[in-house]
What we know:
13 helices
Amino acid sequence: MNAPILLALDxxxxxxxxxxxVEAALRALDEHRRLSLIxxxxxxxxxxxxxxxxxxxxxxxxIQHASEVVAMDEAPSKALRGKKDSSMRxxxxxxxxxxxQAAVSAGNTGALMAIAKFVLKTLPGxxxxxxxxxxxxxxxxxxxxxxxxNAACSSEQLFQFAVMGSAxxxxxxxxxxxxxxxxxxxxxxxKGNETIKQAAALISASKLNYCGFIEGDGIFxxxxxxxxxxxxxxxxxxxxxxxxxxxxxxxxxxxxxRNAGTKLVGLIxxxxxxxxxxxxxxxxxxxxxxxxxNGNVIKSHGGADAxxxxxxxxxxxxxxxxxxxxxxxxxxxxxxxxxxxxxxx
Length: 345
């Protein structure tokens, strides 16, 4: 697709502030000629940052002034009610006003979800938005949701997550019938609580390509395209996976520097180690979609560097290109039409 794309970037939020966002924006503009960006934040600060990069005026890059910033530890309710001119709120407002096609922020996750839900509203038939992101697997990647937006969910909401995940994977990866799995404490049908069993019944009765329960290790080993869980479990699984990856990296560095012999082996294996590090680099997977909203909002990791934030911009572009909200609405209507009501277990 060659249509122009216009995104709003919350330039002031995140652990590293505006410098990372400005660098990522310039990188993205160089890579995508049809992309235009609105930097949202303190205009004076942003102009100084652009000048530091020796940026020459580009009509594809504009600044929208916002006088406030949502802190990373700020209560979502305070950010929503008390900071209506924050860079985060203004970026989402631009999507609501159709002045931007998507918003990208590395800021406070709870605040972003609260603001996005309040401003954009949820799609018809969706109770709650969810956070979805790809995670690396032995076969490539799988998309997991929810990753922290909803600590407790009903079976109907888990079913909605399955629909949203399927629509996004179809849109972004071109998989017509994504395999959907439910994260559980066992693969057997008798395992799990009543909520997860009822969710399984709902998904099984729909037109979704349901492939059953998987356990925690299955996130990385099972060939599912979508893994569904509540936000409490999903966030724990995500953080546990990130911790294991760091632990493996730590152990490998220790072993390859233990003595002269292991250092020599490390030098010989350098190309393999670099390839492994690239495959496991979390920056490649940065950019989680807030699905279920009447608009596109992408959450970057708070500690993202310029490369990672630029990847989140690319995720936003793809969401716009493939009209993810529209696809979710269509698939939900189809799934509900195929689903007998009520479902009992």
